[in-house]
Design a protein that fits this description.
Blueprint: H1 2-10, E1 34-35, E2 38-39, H2 60-65, H3 77-83, E3 98-103, H4 107-117, E4 122-128, H5 132-142, E5 145-147, H6 150-156, E6 159-162, H7 166-181, E7 191-194, E8 213-220, E9 237-242, H8 244-256, E10 260-263, H9 269-279, H10 281-296, H11 301-322, H12 331-334, H13 337-346, H14 349-371
Parallel strand pairs: 3-4, 3-6, 4-5, 6-7, 7-8, 9-10
Antiparallel strand pairs: 1-2, 8-9
Helix pairs in contact: 10-11, 13-14
Amino acid sequence: MAAGFEQRTRRGLVEEGAGAGAPAPSPVAAGVAAAGGAAMPLASAGAGAPAPLVPAADAWGDAIAAAPERIPAPKHAARATAEGAPVPPRVCAGPGRLRLAVVGAGKVGCSLGRYLGESAAVDVVGFCSHDEAHAREAVEFAGGAVFASPIEAARAANLLLVTTPDTSIADVWAELARAARAGELSLRDKLVVHCSGALASGIFAGARELGAHVCSAHPLYAVSSRFDCWREFGRASFTLEGDDWAVGLMAGLLRARGNQVSRIAAGAKTRYHAAAVMASNLVVGLFDMAAGELVRCGFDRVGAEAALAPLFLGNAEHIAKDGVEASLTGPAVRGDHATIDAHLARLEGRDRQAYQLLTEQLVDIVRRRATEG
């Protein structure tokens, strides 16, 4: 398997230098599709189709197992020792490697760059950021070099991860596309990925004519730290959208790291992102409302949040383990209308509106559970 991987990748995306006469990549034979939250294979290529330039998703495990042993990078040792974290690996050149450059050195860029760089199939070649100090910190943390522009980063990489704010993704791509059309940069057989939850890969307009393969890869995870959250990415679910070849490669890379991967259509991205906000950011608002009500009962703010934390965490763990319906508790489940009415009579403003809307949602869950037996 490793030899086959090496032979295929030498001709394509994970080996720089495919010239104008290089064969066009065929669709990846395997990937993922959302089906009940599980990753499912894409349709296989037709009979007689040429072999893909990169292995199917399930072949990545063998490729990674056969990759050269990685060597700790001394220049990263000081930060790693201070963090108590593993030292990131030094670049090990070799066929069949993905050379990863990251445009954007914020929370997602640093975290995902380091996380993917821990894969034996990936070498982090560097970071680019509008803030050079941020890029230098990212390089110290995850490896590689500081690039002065997205064009420099794209020249050095065959996997370009764009982790800028959503409002800047189109500008980054416009710069790359202009350089490619001017002959200053080749995007042929490079994989360009952005990490926006709300935007689709269509923001990379004209990618196909430039020979690039594009997708979006969004971690369903609240990334709150530049240098800590990479350790937590192993339990994150990723949602992919884009062309089959790009999705198949990213799915293989992430699945080899143990991540759950799902695929959605471009038209579903906005609704998908709204769902992610509900389960993440809006929960923070709800917790804040609850803490505010305890403050009105005489708690101080710190004490209120500390008192609610075990309740909040226990419920979240129960939902994650057993599902929504099995986690129902409280007056709505018991049909205790008198208690609900008493609560609504005491609450005011947005707190009252939120309580009422969410109680109605709980009643719907109760009805659904009853209907399903």
